Give the backbone structure.
Amino acid sequence: MIIENQEQVTEAVLSELRRADDPRFVEIMSAAVRHLHAFVREVRLTEPEFQKACAVIARLGQKTSETHNEVVLACGSLGVSNLVCLLNNVGAGQTETTANMLGPFWRMDAPPSENGASIVRSPTPGTPLFVDARVKDTRGRAVPGAEVDVWHSSTEGFYENQDPGQADMNLRGKFTADAEGRVHFRTIKPAGYPIPVDGPVGDLVRAQYRHNMRPAHLHFMITKPGYKTHISQVYVNDDPNLETDVQFGVTRALIGDYVRHVDEPAPAPDVEGDWYSLDFTFTIQPGEARLPRPPITGKAEGARPDLEILERG
Ligand SMILES: [Fe+2]
């Protein structure tokens, strides 16, 4: 159609979208266009602002590589990742769930590991942590045979894929729940880490005088045929940044009770000094066991990157 005024631009785009075959595509894209046009009208977007927005979106893609995903990082920093998670899990966001967002650092094919094994695969500083995780269904019954994929950053603030100094798949492992729906393993207590701020996400965070820290957490992904894949993060209860997570991920149900043990024998004889334990139960729902698209696929080479830490102002 020949456009006669600004309202007709929206009508023209929506009309053409209805030509598509896939009804869900039409629904999603029509809503996106309606909201996007309404946003442009509401803020009266100027031409320089529009050009800047296009440059930011292009930069998100340019910053994304096989070892870093700036798009996923941006979705987290705008709260979209956790919103999608909450709307798609128990009670559509109105009740507590042990589901949480995937984040940008999951790698497929973590090494299968025996219950009780350590996921520390190269020398990594940190206090020993013994994790006991249980998988239950919505009726509280154990889910034996569930696969529990675990990953977390080093206490120096790097996932192994970011850090050529760590062994491949360090602090990653995949366990199988026993007859009681339980997995247990050894690692080190995770520390909070700064998200990379050398791209558009950094500009966004700096503009708000926010810090760029994620509170310390372990990542989990639980899969079993017949159940919806359960993606989670369990946050460390003594972390100072639980209320100001740069990725807006922390809910009360996900704050784990990481218990410090002083002068107590540890579950492994080589442990000297303090150690921590974590017991946590995940509740998984019936559904489809579909794996997410991995946000990264490889490990960085060369020098370890600099990590910049921003203060909250
Ligand atoms: Fe993480």
About this structure: The CA atoms of residues 84 and 101 lie 8 Å apart. The domain at 62-284 is CATH 2.60.130.10 (Protocatechuate 3,4-Dioxygenase, subunit A). Helices lie at 6-17, 23-43, 47-62, 70-77, 80-87, 200-207.
